[in-house]
Specification:
This protein is of the alpha/beta class. It has 10 helices and 8 strands. It has helices spanning about 1-20, 40-55, 55-65, 70-85, 100-110, 170-175, 180-185, 200, 220-250, 265-289, and strands at about 85-90, 95, 110-120, 145-150, 155-160, 165, 190, 205-210.
Length: about 290
């Protein structure tokens, strides 16, 4: 996989690096002066180790024998390139936008599952006017939120850019354009939890959420049994998205983020792209054997 990443991302990194060098007035020709102490392969490895194991920039600097600022710059350059790769659904086929995911699921008759996930972040500094918007209404902690979409097997298909955790799940889905995409796109079924109740009516029943409770007080015994059975059946169908999110949270960079909140979108989407590529490669090897 490392060789594939080097072959894919290396030319993109070199192209952007050359564009930066030629974009400003220069006294010396491009390429003159000191050379990189950290070659691209090492820059990629440092970024992957940072994402997977949460290694600090100081530790990586000692490992590669360079300054901390060099590691910081390398991660800042490589991480967006990993985020732009999208999620791999088949060898040579990737999905980068929510519209592409909806078209892919609808064309093959697959079932999609959506859920929101939160990653804890540092609390904004005192005195900032937007300090409270990162507080999660569910966990009462400072966090950012992303909407994750998987197929029925739990394979990652899409992770949205990060939003402050105070945004409700259903509001986040509407901001991403899910309602319009389902209304204008192919017929398919999207499973969701109770946080998305209301989308079913807006999407002609394409978003399926747990059944509402009709009796709030003194429900008949038969209704309680039926309601609980329906909720368990729905939960067992959508549990695979929890497994997909769990695999993402195994990456230390998503356990809790201590850096800048502005980088969370790239981190989440980079991890999703790398993990989906691994899932697809594993599935392809199992099918060949």
């Amino acid at each position: 996989m490392i060789a594939e990443l080097v072959a894919e991302i290396g030319p993109l990194w070199h192209e952007r690096h050359q564009a930066v060098l030629t974009a400003r007035p220069r006294r010396r020709a491009v390429g003159a002066g000191a050379k990189h102490k950290l070659v691209f392969v090492d820059r990629l490895l440092a970024t992957l180790v940072h994402l997977r194991h949460g290694a600090t920039h100081d530790l990586l600097a000692c490992w590669f024998g360079v300054d901390r600022s060099t590691i910081t710059r390398a991660i800042r350059e490589v991480r967006p390139l990993l985020a732009e790769r999208g999620c791999t659904v088949a060898p040579g086929q990737r999905l980068r936008t929510l519209a592409e995911v909806i078209d892919y699921l609808g064309a093959d008759g697959h079932i999609g599952i959506i859920d929101g996930t939160e990653v804890r972040v540092r609390r904004p500094a005192a005195g900032r006017k937007d300090r409270e918007k990162y507080i999660s209404g569910k966990n009462k902690q400072n966090a950012v939120k992303s909407m994750v979409l998987t197929d029925a097997d739990g394979r990652l298909m899409f992770c949205s850019p990060a939003e402050p955790a105070s945004v409700a799940d259903i509001t986040h889905a509407r901001k991403l354009g899910l309602v319009k995409l389902l209304a204008d796109g192919p017929a398919l079924e999207i499973l969701a939890d109770a946080g998305y109740q209301g989308l079913g009516a807006q999407t002609s029943g394409r978003v399926v959420t747990p059944p509402h409770r009709k009796f709030k007080k003194n429900p008949p015994e038969w209704y309680e049994e039926m309601h609980e059975r329906q909720r368990k059946a729905h939960s067992s169908r959508r549990i695979r998205v929890e497994h997909g999110i769990g695999h993402m949270k195994n990456w230390r960079s998503l356990a809790r983020h201590h850096g800048r909140r502005e980088h969370m979108s790239d981190i989440i989407q980079a991890v999703a792209g790398l993990l989906s590529h691994q899932q697809t490669a594993t599935m392809s090897s199992c099918m060949r054997t």
